[in-house]
Amino acid sequence: MMKKSRQDKILELVAAYYIDTQDELIDRLRESGYDVTQATVSRDIRALNLIKVQTEQGKYRYVQPRREGRADTTDDKKGSNNTANHAHSITHVCYAMNNVVVKTTPGMASAVALFLDYTYHNIMLGSVAGDDTVIVVTRGEEDSRRLCDYLASTTEK
What we know:
- By secondary structure, the chain is of the alpha+beta class.
- The protein folds into two domains: 3-71, Orthogonal Bundle (Arc Repressor Mutant, subunit A), CATH 1.10.10; 84-155, Gyrase A, domain 2 (2-Layer Sandwich).
- Helices cover 41% and strands 24% of the residues.
- A four-stranded antiparallel β-sheet has the order 5-6-8-7, covered by helices on one side.
- Strand 5 (90-96) and strand 6 (99-104) form a beta hairpin.
- The longest helix is centred in the last third of the chain and has 15 residues, at 141-155.
């Protein structure tokens, strides 16, 4: 099959399933009628700039990176990028001027940062994630306050 068609199928598969290995992706592609080799899948992953992010369960999955200011990692059926799924990972939120500090459970900062980048791209300039801390730079102090208030309200238990 054609490269474009195969790569479109890869994007569809990583959006629909939690795929964490090339072997699993190869199996899913073969089930979909694509006869592929590991080398071909490896090249496609690089060409599509797929990245692995840690899920809330501590496992990893392939996702499509930012494109046109948005990370294409939504999975509406599973709700992988909604606030409720990430709220349990956020332990504390505060802000100063146009910076928001989001504390997370260990190992979850990258997933939370990706969620924030996707969801709040319109008020953010960017984010940096460590192991358990995300620093978000917003467009202004009012955006920082709103983001902080919203995240704090979703994490209250």
